[in-house]
Structure formats: C-alpha cells, structure tokens
Amino acid sequence: MKGENSGEELKQVIIIRNELKMPKGKLAAQASHASLDAALKTDREILDEWHNSGGKKVVLKVETEKELLQYFMLAKKLGLVAVLISDAGRTFLQPGTKTCVGIGPDLSSKIDAITGSLQML
Q: What pLDDT, on a 0 to 100 scale, did the predictor assign at position 75?
C-alpha cells in the first residue's frame, strides 16, 4: 500500500473559504461533503489504509474563492484526488457558492507540497 511502503503518514486536507463566515453547522456540513466526496474518489487500497490508521484530516483556510480555486487546480495538476464543493443555496449561501476543497487522502508529503503554507482554520 502507498503509505505502508513508504512508512509515511496518509492524510486528507479540507480547505475552507474563511471569508464566507459560515455558521459552525454550515461549515461542518460543507467540510463533511468535501471529506466524503474526496474519499469516495480515492483508490480503495489507499482509502482503507488511511481509514485503518485513524483517518487523519486537517482543516485549513483561505480567504478568497480565487485562492480556493488555485489550490484545487494545483492539486488536480499534481495528480491528487481533489473535489470542489459548491453549495446548493438552500440555507445560508447563494446557490453555486464555492465553499471548500477536499484533497486526498494521500501521502502527507504530496499534500503538504501544495497546502503546507496554509493556516489551520
């Protein structure tokens, strides 16, 4: 398996648009969408290893939609599983508002190469 062969930790990162100032429940729901959608697109062997090792998740923040899209595109360009979450607009946000990105799970070093400079939410 990917992580076992290298001895390196696997993790998943969720990047949230901080300037949206979503209520805690809304933020949790959007982060959950990102986590689940990214996990469902991950290779089963990696997913199982990540899950069995505790399913590490890190939630980071950006301030703008432009930044969010840059991290999403860079992750995709580098071959990582990445999903972009857009809100349905039923409660707090306008329909189609891009709220967050889920990256991985994958090797921590691969994800950190993209998101290592971001601050935790």
A: 98
What pLDDT does residue 89 have?
86
What are the angstrom distances between the C-alpha of 37 and each of 5, 9, 75? 25, 21, 15
Is the CATH code 3.40.1490.10 the one for domain 2-120? yes
* Torsion, CA 101, CA 105, CA 107, CA 108, rounded to 10: 50
Q: 7: phi > 0 → left, psi -120 to 50 → alpha, else beta; which?
A: left
- Alpha-helix residue ranges (DSSP H) falling in 1-121: 2-6, 24-40, 44-52, 65-77, 108-115
Model's pTM, two decimal places? 0.92
Give the pLDDT confidence of 41-50 residue by residue, as tens digits.
999 999 999 9
Domain boundaries, the chain: 2-120
